[in-house]
Write a structure and sequence with these properties.
Oligomer: single chain
Number of strands: 3
Shape: elongated
Strand order of the largest sheet: 1-3-2
């Protein structure tokens, strides 16, 4: 298979060319050369981009994803890191399910005012004590 132009990689991977350039800058992918001013990539970059997309969807940072590749570019994924991320996702799913249920209750609550609803007041107290965690802020990511 022949090398792929940056625009073809962008199209197939579903990301803008600027993201590919950013990933290259971060060391996540590498162009194999240029044809004129346009970067060229080995077709294997598409699989690597799929792994990066999967990692991003799971909530890994780009730095964490970078550590999942060996020097030769092959995946080197620590199973303990995956298990820890799965545990983190389980906690987040639990928090989000509780928040979803709270919002559904608040939307359907027959109390004249939310502040008069005992359930809503309990939730408010839990939020004030930090028992209901707000989503963590993430570092800005490339376009």
């Amino acid at each position: 298979m022949t090398d792929l132009d940056i625009s073809e990689v962008a199209r197939r991977a579903g990301v803008p060319a600027s993201t590919l350039r950013y990933y290259e800058e971060k060391g996540l992918i590498a162009a194999v050369g240029r044809r004129g001013l346009r970067r060229q990539y080995d077709p294997g970059v598409l699989e690597r981009l799929a792994l990066i997309a999967m990692g991003r969807t799971a909530g890994f940072s780009l730095d964490e994803i970078a550590r999942m590749f060996a020097e030769d570019g092959q995946p080197r994924i620590d199973r303990q890191v995956l298990a820890a991320k799965a545990d983190e996702l389980d906690r987040r799913i639990h928090e989000l399910a509780a928040m979803r249920d709270s919002l559904r209750h608040a939307a359907a609550c027959p109390a004249p005012s939310h502040m008069e609803c005992p359930t809503f007041r309990r939730l408010l107290k839990a939020a004030a004590s930090g028992a209901v965690a707000a989503p963590r802020k993430r570092a800005p990511q490339p376009p």
